[in-house]
Amino acid sequence: MMLRLLKIEHFRGIESAEWVIDRHLIGLVGAGDSTKTTLLDAIGLVLSANHNPQFTDADFFGLDLKKNITIEAAISGLPDNLVKESQLGKDRSGIKPNGRLVHDPVDGAEECLVIRLTITPELDPTWEIVRPGTEDARHISASQRRQLGFFRLGERPDYHLYRDQGRYSNVSKALRPPSVTIVRYGLKRFKVESGP
């Protein structure tokens, strides 16, 4: 699984953001209170297998409860069992190298799923698969989101990042590609810098 695109609307300190991701390893660098953790929380929420995370009024940008929170993530490198026709295979979209989403994974577009989390002012979350160019949306269950394999390192990263007798943990394997993106955040906008 690879996160290729993240869109956030009205979530905590982010009024609106769109982030195209073209690297396997990302480093977030920035001053305190510059939305680094908010970005990680947004990714965690939209891909979470938790069916009932807790939200509060403070999660709404500027405490404005007149607008929904919307978080969208385009995910590539999908597990085979999720792209079966009986699962979410009919809901696949495509993402171009420049991050533009297209309705179908054709003409050089990489296969992806676009997952949208919407949180209403009543604090009700809804997860859906959406496709560009259409208003249709289909529910994605917590068990289907679990199949994406997302997890977040916590207070014990040594548990996730180990090498024992020549074997690597799954996270250690995922972190082996050489390309890195460093992202610096300001309060209202962010800049992406890529490097070797």
Textual characterization of the structure:
The chain is mainly beta and 196 residues long. Helices cover 13% and strands 36% of the residues. It has 4 helices and 13 strands. The chain has helices spanning 36-47, 142-146, 157-160, 170-174, and strands spanning 2-11, 14-20, 25-29, 69-76, 93-95, 101-102, 110-119, 125-130, 137-139, 163-164, 167-168, 180-185, 190-195. Strands 1, 2, 4, 5, 6, 7, 8 and 9 form an 8-stranded antiparallel β-sheet that branches. It has a 3-stranded mixed β-sheet with strand order 3-12-13, with no helix packed on it. Strands 10-11 form a two-stranded antiparallel sheet. A hairpin with a 6-residue loop joins strand 8 and strand 9 (137-139). The longest helix is centred in the first third of the chain and has 12 residues, at 36-47. The two termini are 21 Å apart. Mean pLDDT is 82; it is low at 175-196.
